[in-house]
Amino acid sequence: MEFQIESQSGTIRVSGDMTVYCAAELETALLAEVAAGNSSLDLSQVQEFDTAGLQLILLLNRELLGGLRITACSPGVRATLELTHLNKLIVAEAA
Q: Less Cβ around it within 10 Å: N or C end of the chain?
């Protein structure tokens, strides 16, 4: 599966995959969104997530000088972030 990106009110919503197969295209798109002033990620619709996706999150956090916020994430993304102790990037999700 491929990915889709939408942005609204400072939040970038990623749907689909964040894997090595689409990492280069996804990196370009996400960096453009960050350059446009977006600083939050909604990853609730991410289906596949691997270390390339994790590297993209680290890259965005570095670009934002540690200011990246993940407002929602899928169970797979959450598990990976918890395993790597990056769950501190997740802000309280709406109930």
A: C
> In one letter, which amino acid is 76?
G
- pTM score, whole prediction: 0.91
Backbone dihedral region for residue 16 (phi beyond 0: left; psi -120 to 50: alpha; all else: beta)? left
Residue 76 to residue 78: CA distance in whole angstroms? 5
Q: What is the pLDDT of residues 42-87, one digit of tens each?
A: 999 999 999 999 999 999 999 999 999 999 999 999 999 999 999 9
Domain that holds residue 8: 3-89
CATH number of the domain at 25, please: 3.30.750.24
For the chain, the domain total comes to 1
Measured between alpha carbons, how far is 57 from 59 in angstroms, rounded to an integer?
Answer: 5
